[in-house]
Every structure is written in structure tokens, then in C-alpha cells.
């Protein structure tokens, strides 16, 4: 299970991010303590502690029996000072997150572009018709690029992807709030507008591979620029002894009860260990010791899994994996997240493979091939590959994102049973394709290797994504 950040810190980070990027402007009323408790199942103590921190840091005003109100003003001198302090506390995290951008954004854009229509293309044409005079500083130019990307990503109708992209953009908005505005050359503005017009034309022609490559190059350029701009601030933060904040992205910015996280994690481990139908989980006491929680929390996790038909607890015998999930109204939310997570992983696999290609050694490749042979489904092949690639890439935010997407994919797979029982022929063909793909892993051929692996991952997940889409459409019709 991913490293835990206290719930009150997660709530604090979520609200601060949205205040800083303008989603919660001055005067905005936050949800009441009671509503946050009801919507997210979070204890009152964690909510009140987060709100107390927000008030102490000057973001909100909180009065008894009234909803908290945002008082932060970005243009106020005190607001600017607070903004700079928050930025300095996140410098190292910011650099790490920048490193993850080229692995994530191109895939999200490609997933949205695949579902493009005339309405999207017309909107992109309108966006790109702006006059160069509308841009005055570098931040304007970056917002222009991000707006184009956001419009395409939203077309994928993937809430997890849209929420993740919003957080990525929020990091960079904070950077440009702190840095002084840089004057732009007219030629630089014109070149960026031409670039986005060409990207739009590639979508119109259906040349999504070319689009993916160009967006990836753009992200690499932004990464280099950001690293150059942020590095001096890291030295300032160290000199002033500003405490580094343990910050991360969330694929869904909604805190979840601990028992639910454990339920997700139990199925993730079951998938990694290739547990079959009828396999017995360790006892509640053993699991309580492993997770460092009470037996009651483990019991609540199994109660949730039992109610969804994924497991069955037999008194005196233990809890068993049933493998009898189904697509019902009760499981719709988990199936939706399965579909969204699987699409993100599949479409980002090419960039992740490219990031890892130059860092994989022969021993690691051999280990991956051996582990692939133990996979019992094509989704397991995808997860195995990405897990090893991300470990080799050694980018903490990317690892964090993967863990969150992995648990949602596995949980939805067991709950729906979609993708759990491929034919042996299909599974072995997928594994052999990957093994053959590793033959391309040679110095100077990283891009060919990444393209091949990315295509294999998309093909391996295509049937499952089609079944999931059909299942969700049927549920909506009902």
C-alpha cells in the first residue's frame, strides 16, 4: 500500500492547491465540516485540523457554525509572501513532478485525441485564432498550451485523467505566480500558435502517433526550462532552512477511509501473487499486524469485499477469493475507475517505456521476462511491465501515480470480472509479443522499443476497454 500522508495534510494540500490556481477565489465558501464528513467519510478531527492549519496560514476564515470562507488574495503583499513560502517548501517535489510530466501528459492527450469530434476541433481552432498581442509574458504562453491540452484531455471523458492534469497544471501555475513575468519575443508567440495549430491539424487527420511525439518533445522542453528556473530556488530554500513538504499528486483528490484503502490493497496483492479462485487470505490478526491497524479495520475491509461478491468469509475457516464479481449498479463506480485507470496506464505505457529503456540492465530484463511467465491475465502483463519500468525510471511522483492507478485497475478487474480470464492462447501470445519487443532494447533504439511496447500494451487492453465501455453504457441505459 502506498506511503500514507495523514488525512488532514491531504485535505490541506487539496484546498491550498485549488486556492492557489484560482478555483477557490477570495470570498469562496468551502463545504461545511459536516458535508465533507458525509461526502468522504473522514473523521471530524482530521477535517477540523486541516481547516485550523488553513486558517493559521492565512488561507481561510473559519467561524463557529459557519462555512469557512477563502480570504487569501494573490495580489495582496501578505498573499504573495505566503505563496512564495509555499513554493519554496515544494521546490524539490516540483522538480520531481516535472520529471514525471513527459511520462504522463502525452498519453493523456493521445487518449483524448482518439475521441475527438468536430465540436472539439472547432473549439481548438477558435483557441488558436488568438492574436499574438494577447500574450504578454511566458506564463500566458504556458497557460495557452495547457488550455489546449486540457480541452483535448477532457474529451476522453476520463475524470481521473482530468483531475490529474489539473494538479499538474496547478504546480506550474504556482511557479509562474512566484517568478517575475518574462517578456516574450513576438516570434516566440507566433511559433507557439503555429505549433498548436499543427497539433490540431494532426488530430483532424488522425495522425495521433505524430501528435504524441510532438507533445512529448514539448513536455521535455518544458521540463528543461522548469529545471533551469527552479534549481536556484532549491538553494534558497536550503539556505533559509524551509521545511520541505511531503507533497504528491492524487489520481482522485478525495480522501478515503483506511479500511477501503486496505480492501483495494488486498486485491492488488492477490493479483501480484496470482491468487486463484478459492485462495484463502491470511487471518485478520495477521493482516492487522502487517498493516499496523486494528482487527476491526481489517474486518471492515473484508466486509466491503464480501458485499461486492469478491470474497466470502466462512466462520472458522477464513476469507476466500471467490472470483464472482459482476457489473451491477453497486459496482459501477469501481468499474468506471477501472476503465479510466486502464486507459491512462495503456496510453502512458509508451512514454514510461522510453523513460526506462536506457536504465534497464540485462538482469532486470531477465527478471521481467520471468515474472511475465507467471502472469494469469493480459492486464497482469501490462501492470508487471509498468511496475518494473517505473522502478527503473526512479521518479517518485510517477511511482505514486502508478500505485494509485494499479489498485483501481485491479479492484475493478476483480469486481467486474472483466479481464480476469483470458484464453491461454491470448495470454501466451501477449507475453511472447513483449518478449520479442525486448529484442529492440539496444542503445540508440529506445524510441523504437518504446513504440513497440506501447502498441502491445494498447492492443492487450483493447478488448477489456471495449467490454468496460459497453458495461458502463448498459448501466447508464438502465
Layout of secondary structure:
Blueprint (H helix, E strand, L loop, with lengths): L6 H14 L12 H8 L3 H13 L3 E2 L7 E2 L6 H13 L1 H23 L4 H10 L10 H17 L4 H20 L7 H20 L2 H32 L18 H15 L11 H8 L3 H13 L3 E4 L3 E4 L10 H26 L4 H11 L5 H16 L2 H21 L7 H14 L8 H32 L1
Antiparallel strand pairs: 1-2, 3-4
Structure description:
By secondary structure, the protein is mainly α. 68% of the residues lie in helices and 3% in strands. It contains 19 helices and four strands. Strand 1 and strand 2 form a beta hairpin.
Distance between the termini: 35 Å
Q: Pick out the low-confidence regions.
A: none
Approximate strand percentage? under 5%
Let me know the number of strands.
4
* Rg on CA atoms, Å: 23 Å
Helix percentage: 55-70%
Helices and strands, in order, run as HHHEEHHHHHHHHHHEEHHHHHH
Question: Order of strands side by side in the largest beta sheet?
Answer: 1-2
Essential attributes:
478 residues, mainly alpha, two-stranded antiparallel sheet, 19 helices, globular
Give a short overview:
It contains 19 helices and 4 strands. The protein has 478 residues and is an all-alpha fold.
